[in-house]
Amino acid sequence: MPSTNRIHVLRRRLAVLLSAAGALVLAGGGGFAALESHQVTSFWEGVWWALSLMTTVGFVGESPETTSGRLVSAVLMLAGFALMTVTTAAIASSLVREEEPGQAAERDFEQATREGLADITSRLESIEEALAERRGDGSVE
Asked: Is residue 52 packed enough to be buried (19+ CB in 10 Å), middle (13-18) or exposed (0-12)?
């Protein structure tokens, strides 16, 4: 199970990523409204266009006519892929339990200790049996 501190770090990173993505969608929407006036008639329509590109849906109408509009589209598409990749990796890493440094050595030491105690116990039982046989009565005091 992931540690509480690690989950807080994950939440902070995701919050930063999602805030940056939101800002990029708003900036892209403004860019589309300014650069693609034939395709996008308002800022909010530009935001819708930018959001569809960031979520990897694709264009919600015609593709951009200007080179600048195509560049904005390319940036939004790449940012959408990056956001999806990083978010998925962050969630997956929170589900994977990582061993702390030294845990493997501690686990090996505990196993060796258990094996050593089992060996000592069996040797002690053998010694007690041998002593009982020497006494001849079969009892151990």
From this structure: middle
Instruction: Judge contact between 10 and 86, C-beta under 8 A.
Output: no
pLDDT tens for the chain, 141 residues: list them: 456 676 777 778 888 888 888 899 999 989 888 988 888 888 998 898 888 888 877 777 777 888 888 898 888 889 888 888 888 887 787 777 666 677 778 888 899 999 999 999 999 999 998 888 888 765 555
Domains and CATH numbers, the chain: 4-98 (1.10.287.70), 100-141 (no CATH)
Beta strands in the chain (DSSP E): none
pTM of the model: 0.57
CB atoms within 10 A of CB 94: 17
